[in-house]
Here is the input.
Amino acid sequence: MNRALPEMLQWQQQQQQQSYFSELSGVFRSQISHLCFDGGFMSSDSVVTREVKPDNNGLETAWPEPGKLEMGSLGLGFEFEPCGPSYNMNYAISGTSSCPPPAAAELVTGKMGSAVGTGNESFKKRKADKLQNSKAAVEDDSMKKIKAYEEDGESKITGPSNSNKSKHKKENSKASEVQKPDYIHVRARRGQATDSHSLAERVRREKISERMKYLQDLVPGCNKITGKAGMLDEIINYVQSLQRQVEFLSMKLAAVNPRLDFNIDNLFTKVEEFPAVQVVANPIHYLHFNPAQEVVSETALRRTISAPVTIPDTSFLDSSCFAQIQPSATWDDVELQNLYNAGRFH
Amino acid sequence: MCPHTSLKQQFLKKWIMGLQRCSFSKKNMSILERKKTIKLSADIAMASARNGTTRWSRALISNASKDGSDNRLVQQILGPDSNTPAVATTTNKARTRRASVCKKIVKRSHQIRRRRRKCVAAAPVKAVTSSISKHLVRKRTQVLKTLIPGGEFMDEICLIEETLDYITSLRVQVDVMRSVASACFSQS
Here is the structure.
């Protein structure tokens, strides 16, 4: 009967995608609200949209502009910091069996309890034996739970017309099962092999692709790249550039301080007032602050890196005039401007 | 504001503390030595800010404490909280031996597979392109493994997670160092 109408199947798949989707969005929402991240909803939606997108072709359309994306991605990246367990929770929800699931399951149930409009059955993320489930799943495709989905953005994710090409894990949600050990529920897709090896392969591949999507947010410029190899290339370049920046900065600091004595009090008062200097969309732009109002970008500095002590020839004001430095011309970071303004009244 | 701020402050404090401890030991270091100590203390501060939760941080600290010359520095920087490195070094050594053996086996299997593939005549285009892309991906994961500290021992999924964490902490490091450098410059 599940093969009766292709439309019915399509609809069912849409429901599933949206259910999977709303799960993720529920979790993200909780985390983001927990962190009071303003303006993160747009990015969270877009992130979640990305995750559930079946084909990578639609990536460009759904995403906001790169600047915004970067903000969102930063927010998302920031999530990982203070909430260690929540970081794990993200992955647990995607089905990693190594992370502690109960906390995540509870969180999800809490969210789902609020989200599900019908309230017929409480949706709980179930983990059951892969092999068993795959055999059972092929037979009863009709046992899908209908979930209320929250966002309009999800409607963008229309199920692919070809049911064979669905790329989502179908989660089994039976209200009767209460607690199960760390198993991952995987259902065989229609027309795919059902033996445990290929299922495990598919699970692994999906995990990897999900992580890669997180990485896409972190690494700037990865939005347009869709293949794994290309993204890996970008990631490698980015990590190498960051490491080179660290080297360069440490060399610079070594050049400045002949005795490795950082004036602690001074530093702490100045640096701790820094609101976090967010890495703007292009982290390669290292604007060297220069009261003579010459903006020396890092590319220029890199060329002179062979002579490590390349302090540009400027007339630095002394420390008392620290506060008088005009920020507007050079820094492109609004928050640093505020810092300098605050420093005036120090 | 930004949830990274606490991490940045933590990193900064540890870094400055480590540098203070280092500067007491040696006077009149050359510029390269200074750079090395700065970078080393920054890396270790970053890694210890993770409190051993991530693999790359543990690997970084254990690698740093392996070399005899840097060991003293590391001990100084870490101070009284140097508990994990000793354990990590032994496990890493065992792992390197096992990893080298595994690598040989994997290499041999790859060679056999290549020979078999050559025997297959006129493979369809799809198979060729997919094998090329797989080859590319494999090469690049190898490179990534060399970049991330302790990456050679991780499988793909772990590697990507560690990369995520490593990238965020590198960013924090760069930000803090940059602001310190600018503060120093404006001071002097």
User: Anything to note?
Assistant: The two ends of chain B are 30 Å apart (CA to CA). DSSP finds seven helices and no strands in chain B. The CA atoms of residues 133 and 139 of chain B lie 10 Å apart. The mean pLDDT of chain B is 76.
